[in-house]
Specification:
The chain has about 240 residues and is an alpha+beta fold. Helix content is about 30%, strand content about 20%. It has 6 helices and 8 strands; from the N terminus they run E-H-E-E-H-E-H-E-H-E-E-E-H-H.
């Protein structure tokens, strides 16, 4: 009897992420900036509300950043992240807020890297006490990824990372910087996403530490530990 071919696994069946294209997605990009204002100014108090009279949080990095949003099955905006490219000085936002590095930390060529920032999930999907902005709960470890993801927040996270990974492949990006809260770094590690802490804990819109991820190492680790997940990540629609 011939071996059965396993059905493709869908790791985020309740959500779809996409990269926002200026001109085509201006209405959705407006909602993204409104979400950023709601989270960073009103909910968390990281930035003063009075500095954004239009209730849209934007900064100088947005014009050259790649923006990604997650939508639920109704088409509602439920999550967001951006990939920031190096500025004219070949530096990233985290370097202004996290100037100190660990003794063994090494930075990578800036043209091969981006910084993932403003990663957030809407309040409706941060229902538990102690949730961080990515929607994960501080007190709990994220279960190992499997073929039956029931928690909506890991689905949103995976959906966004899938599109950012696809975009990175298209543009030749190998390294991701990210300033992360410890629960998020731990959750990504459990999924095989290889991020290494490169600096001490600091206050960068909340208590975070800077991390560096090598996508080639990520491919090797996720491919070995969760081959179905790696196959799914490779099938993003980035660049289409």
């Amino acid at each position: 009897m011939p071996a059965l071919t396993p059905e493709p696994t869908e790791f985020a069946p309740l959500f779809h992420s996409r990269e926002l294209v200026p001109g085509r997605d201006d209405d959705l990009l407006q909602k993204v900036f409104e979400l950023r204002y709601q989270v960073y100014c009103r909910e968390c108090g990281f930035l003063p509300e009075g500095s954004y009279p239009d209730h849209c949080e934007t900064d100088s990095y947005d014009a050259t950043a790649a923006h990604f949003c997650a939508l639920n099955l109704r088409g509602d905006l439920v999550g967001y992240a951006r990939m920031v490219r190096p500025d004219r000085a070949q530096s990233f936002p985290f370097q202004s807020h996290c100037p100190d590095l660990l003794a063994d930390a090494t930075l990578v060529p800036p043209q091969q890297a981006v910084e993932i920032s403003r990663l957030m999930v809407t309040q409706a999907y941060r229902r538990r006490r102690g949730d961080v902005l990515a929607g994960l709960t501080i007190e709990d470890d994220l279960p190992e990824v499997n073929h039956d993801l029931r928690d909506h927040t890991p689905q949103i996270l995976l959906s966004l990372y899938r599109q950012m990974y696809g975009s990175s492949l298209v543009h030749g990006t190998r390294f991701w910087y990210a300033a992360m809260e410890r629960p998020l770094a731990r959750a990504l590690s459990q999924m095989g996403f290889a991020f290494v802490q490169i600096g001490p804990l600091t206050d960068y819109y909340g208590p975070v530490a800077p991390y560096l991820g090598d996508l080639r190492q990520l491919e090797a680790e996720v491919g070995q530990r969760h081959p179905a997940l790696m196959s799914w990540l490779r099938k993003s629609d980035a660049g289409t």
